[in-house]
């Protein structure tokens, strides 16, 4: 909580809020405890950045880096493999103050694509760099590369081999045990500024060069101080078709709560293109929601001194943030 002086010298209490997700999919029981622990740790980390007085943008980057570094999630370390057994990563970051945004897609050998996306935003006149161009830019600004082997887990190698025997990756229905999706964060800081960040390895066994929703502005994420910030997760091809992040914020702009806006938009994606997924949203006044239409989504929200978290539909558990 922070305090601002409003009209007539009234003290307004503003909540600083940070929400993270670790991907909406049918998370198997074997990954459930580590997924919940991972989102809780990332929310605590991002919240400590916010509480130290830094911006929502700094906080979402820090939270997503923590999720990218955690091998239980499909982003950075732990990312899924494409059809050639390679890691191709996508990420976006967006600043609600100015609508500045940076993204990378199909980038290789980068442990924290969210920070490379931020560098695209801050050090170039572009919004997105793809493939070899993104890697060349990373080299030009001195970002360390990591061998693919360092990003790939034994779990992913095993799942990739099993999956190859069944069906071609991106054609399958999303809500199955084969998907393994995306991380993200949204935040509002003391000044009422919002930001979002999303990062992913995409879909297991995807075609080489396939780009999903995550790095595309208005699809995998959007942030605007006039309405809020969103990070999406789920079947990329479906999210792209309904521009899910902007769809949610357009409902907020029409006066709906962030929870209703998320529910309506995900419902629309299910009805219109039979896609499942999830979203986290925060408004400039500190309203927040974590919503999904898949079997599960690991999420956590740091608000005042409470850490909310969940995995299953309608689950909303809480514990003290400062433990
Ligand atoms: N939602 C991540 C992807 O489909 O690539």
TrEMBL record:
Tagged with keyword Hydrolase? yes
Q: Which Pfam families match?
A: Asparaginase_2
Residues of the signal peptide: 1-26
Q: Could you list this entry's UniProt keywords, alphabetically sorted.
A: Autocatalytic cleavage, Hydrolase, Protease, Signal
Q: What would be one Gene Ontology cellular-component term for the protein?
A: cytoplasm
Which InterPro entries does the entry link to? ASRGL1_meta, Ntn_hydrolases_N, Peptidase_T2
Q: Which GO terms describe its biological process?
A: L-asparagine catabolic process via L-aspartate; proteolysis
Among its keywords, does the record have Nuclease?
no
Q: Which sites bind substrate? A: 210-213, 233-236
Give the protein name, as stated in the record.
Isoaspartyl peptidase/L-asparaginase
């Amino acid at each position: 909580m922070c305090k601002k002086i409003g009209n007539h010298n009234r003290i307004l209490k503003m909540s600083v809020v940070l929400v993270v997700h670790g991907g909406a999919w049918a998370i198997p029981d074997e990954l459930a405890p580590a997924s919940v622990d991972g989102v809780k740790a990332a929310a605590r980390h991002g919240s400590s950045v916010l509480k130290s007085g830094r911006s929502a943008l700094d906080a979402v980057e820090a939270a997503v880096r923590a999720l990218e570094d955690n091998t239980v999630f499909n982003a950075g370390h732990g990312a899924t493999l494409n059809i050639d057994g390679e890691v191709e990563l996508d990420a976006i970051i967006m600043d609600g103050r100015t609508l500045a945004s940076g993204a990378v897609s199909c980038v290789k050998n980068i442990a924290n694509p969210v920070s490379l996306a931020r560098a695209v935003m801050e050090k170039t006149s572009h919004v997105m760099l793809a493939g070899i161009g993104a890697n060349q830019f990373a080299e030009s600004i001195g970002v360390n590369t990591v061998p693919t082997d360092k990003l790939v887990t034994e779990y992913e190698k095993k799942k990739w081999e099993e999956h190859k025997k069944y069906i071609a990756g991106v054609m399958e229905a999303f809500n199955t045990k084969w998907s393994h999706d995306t991380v993200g964060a949204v935040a509002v800081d003391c000044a009422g500024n919002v930001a979002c960040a999303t990062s992913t390895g995409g879909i297991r066994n995807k075609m080489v060069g396939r780009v999903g929703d995550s790095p595309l502005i208005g699809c995998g994420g959007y942030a605007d101080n006039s309405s809020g910030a969103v990070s999406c997760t789920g079947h990329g091809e479906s999210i792209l078709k309904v521009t899910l992040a902007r769809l949610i914020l357009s409902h907020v702009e029409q006066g709906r709560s962030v929870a209703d806006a998320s529910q309506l938009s995900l419902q629309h994606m299910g009805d219109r293109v039979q896609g499942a997924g999830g979203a986290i949203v925060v408004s400039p006044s500190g309203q927040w929601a974590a919503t999904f239409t898949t079997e599960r989504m690991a999420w956590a929200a740091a608000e005042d001194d409470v850490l909310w978290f969940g995995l299953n539909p309608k689950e909303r558990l809480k514990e003290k943030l400062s433990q």
